[in-house]
Amino acid sequence: MVRFKSALVAVLLLMLQCPFALAVNRCTIDGKTVYQDPPCPGTLGTVGEEIADKENQRRVSAQQEAQRAAGQRQREEMKASFDAAIKQMANYSVAIGRGIACDAPGTHEAYRRLVAWMDAKGLTKDYMPVATATIREATKRQREGITPDPCTEVRAEFARYPWP
């Protein structure tokens, strides 16, 4: 029994002199290797926790990428819709200008419908000057004979035009 107590005391003394003997974590702190019981600073804990965190990071990154891609698609769709509206506004304006030059019936109604359509699309504030200038230019070109269609054809086309 005395030997057992002596051995126990010797082990306890060794443990007090070498605290890292029971340490389970080998860490590098300030360039030095240190053995300690608690996890090393900056680690996540267990390997399972680290794997779970990496998976979570991948999932979050994938969600963020999907959101960025959806936002980009939405911006592209909005731009395409806007570009189509501007092109349609120009077509309406040219048709009205040519109709005015050829005294086509219904030009006032067509202009009123154009303005209402532009209001609905949110274009009136910024693009009304463009539409007006396009109407004036188309009127001038038709009157000067720069356009290829004679007024008889312009009036017939104006009557069939798909106004908004």
Which segments are poorly predicted (pLDDT under 50) over 5 or more consecutive residues? none
Biggest pleated-sheet summary: 2 strands, antiparallel
Q: Span from first to last CA?
A: 107 Å
H/E series:
HEEHHHH
Query: Which percent range fits the helix content?
Result: over 70%
Give a structural overview.
Helices cover 71% and strands 6% of the residues. It is mostly helical. It has a domain at 72-160. The model has no long low-confidence stretch (mean pLDDT 85).
Task: For this entry, give a set of tags.
164 residues; mainly alpha; two-stranded antiparallel sheet; 5 helices; 71% helix; 6% strand; rod-shaped
Q: Could you provide a short overview of the structure?
A:
71% of the residues lie in helices and 6% in strands. It has 164 residues and is mostly helical. It has a domain at 72-160.
Give the topology, please.
Layout (H helix, E strand, L loop, with lengths): L1 H16 L7 E5 L2 E5 L10 H55 L5 H15 L2 H20 L7 H10 L4
Antiparallel strand pairs: 1-2
